[in-house]
Write a structure and sequence with these properties.
With 460 residues, the chain is an alpha/beta fold. The protein has 2 domains: 12-206, YjeF N-terminal domain (Rossmann fold), CATH 3.40.50; 230-459, Ribokinase (UDP-N-acetylmuramoyl-L-alanine:D-glutamate ligase). Helices cover 37% and strands 16% of the residues. The protein has 14 helices and 17 strands. The protein is elongated and about 80 Å long. It starts with 11 loop residues before the first helix and ends with a helix. Residues 208-460 form the YjeF C-terminal domain. It comes from Sphingomonas yabuuchiae.
């Protein structure tokens, strides 16, 4: 079982093409099924720790994988039973059922077992399972000590993260050959438990992958405050939000953070390391500025629009967040030639790019292409995409991030990475990774100020 950090993510079409490409010479569909079944059995045996196992098989190739796994578990001397939703239909499933050769119980009458393995439909499902299947799954899952899904839980669509009916929550999902979009997209991702990859000997290539820890920029003996990155944060009518952004940029590793607010607007006195100046029309002329963050607490009045226009015309690498995402226009964004990163939550994304009608991965890629920017589409299932189609899918984030100001902290963290010289996609990934790790470290009921402070601890 392989952790999925940094691994390629394949859609249904990409996975089918990869499997077809793997079937050359003596490698056949049966070969891949045998590899999958053997890998499933090895993983299940380790997790079951000697407990009785019930494998649920469907009529297609996912069910075939289940029959092969059950046969392998039986050969190991483990107590294993098989229940089926229907008779095998595909050639591979018929062959696999013959290899199992044991009793097959009817799904709706099967008795529970401590370890429950769902190999009914996996990735091949495009519509809701029957009520009979859904009810049986719910009953058997409820009674199990450990719930394991093969490839995808029955009732989950492969590419869009949708649950097609009532789907139990699993403890472990064993991805066959490659990670799939629904392992990471909500609401399906919340049903998966831990996702682990099983290698079945299929070469996988994709322009999408899962989040991983980037090699974060580190100072050396020749570093100084400007070489570590200077971040300018443009404040607006709510200076608390931009102060959080400035603090986060410092805590994420920036060497110099400049907070630009209107004359007379009072900000926090701490930390004293943030340099506070009045905003002026030429405030961004400083050549050493490596990234500008605009949007947190900006407001949406004429003054806010003027500041956004100045940031767009200033030619500096730019992070656009919060209120600025409500003010900016796609046509204007295209004119800004310097690197830029947009960080919308769901509502801001809809305002700027329209409703998501297909899936979050496709929509975010489309938005990046339209805007010419790296787009960080925030949420429990954050998706990052670049204009060239590269995309990063992020594991489920802490639900405690659903509190005011955490998005401002993320903007500051990404700003620090961009100012330090990372390319926009890498800067976005590094900032998202830091943000998620800080939330995980804090546990429950933290506030955004705590989150900003925790960035330093994560870097340490």
């Amino acid at each position: 079982m392989i952790p999925i950090d940094g691994l390629p993510v394949l859609t249904a079409a990409e996975m089918h093409a990869a499997e077809q490409a793997a079937m050359v010479g003596e490698v056949t569909e049966a070969t891949l099924m045998d590899r999958a079944g053997s890998a499933i059995a090895q993983a299940v045996a380790r997790l079951a720790a000697g407990r009785e196992i019930l494998v649920l098989c469907g009529p297609g190739n996912n069910g075939g994988d289940g029959y092969i796994a059950a046969a392998a578990l039986k050969r190991q001397g483990l107590a294993v039973r098989v229940a089926a939703s229907d008779a095998p239909r595909s050639t591979g499933a018929c062959r696999a059922a013959a290899i199992w050769g044991g009793a097959v119980e009817a799904l709706d009458r099967a008795e529970p077992a401590p370890v429950f393995v769902d190999a009914i439909f996996g990735t091949g499902l495009s519509r809701s399972p029957s009520d009979e299947i859904q009810n049986a799954l719910a009953r058997l899952a409820e009674a199990a000590w450990l719930r394991i899904a093969v490839d995808l839980p029955t009732g989950v669509a492969m590419d869009n993260g949708k649950a097609l009916g009532k789907v139990p929550r699993f403890d472990v999902t064993l991805a066959l050959g490659a990670v799939k979009p629904s392992h990471l997209l909500q609401p399906a991702a919340s049903l998966m438990g831990q996702v682990r990859l099983l290698d079945i000997g299929v070469a996988t290539r994709s322009h999408a992958r899962t989040l991983t820890r980037w090699h974060l920029p580190e100072p050396d003996a020749n570093s100084h405050k400007y070489s570590r990155g200077m971040v300018a944060v443009i404040a607006g009518s709510m200076s608390g939000a931009s102060e959080l952004t400035a603090l986060a940029a410092l805590r994420a590793g920036a060497g110099y953070v400049l907070h630009l607010a209107s004359a007379g607007v009072s900000g926090s006195a701490a930390p004293h390391a943030v340099v506070r100046r009045d905003y002026t029309a030429d405030a961004l002329d400083e050549d050493r500025i490596g990234a500008v963050v605009i949007g947190p607490g900006l407001g949406r009045d004429a003054d806010a629009s003027a500041r956004l226009e100045a940031a767009l015309s200033g030619g500096r690498p730019l992070i656009i967040d919060g209120d600025a995402l409500r003010l900016v226009e796609l046509g204007t964004l295209a004119k800004h030639k310097a690197p830029k990163i947009l960080t919308p939550h769901g509502g801001e994304f809809t305002h700027l790019f329209g409703e998501v009608t297909d899936d979050k991965l496709s929509a975010t890629r489309r938005a990046a292409r339209q805007s010419g920017a790296v787009v960080v589409h925030k949420g429990a299932d954050t998706v990052i995409a670049a204009p060239d189609g590269q995309a990063i899918l992020c594991p489920e984030a802490s639900p405690w991030l659903s509190t005011a100001g955490t998005g401002d902290v993320l903007a500051g963290a990404i700003g620090a990475m961009l100012a330090a010289g990372l390319e926009p996609l890498a800067a976005a990934e590094a900032g998202v990774w830091l943000h998620a790790q800080a939330a995980r470290r804090l546990g429950k009921a933290f506030i955004a100020d705590d989150l900003a402070d925790a960035l330093s601890a994560v870097r340490g």
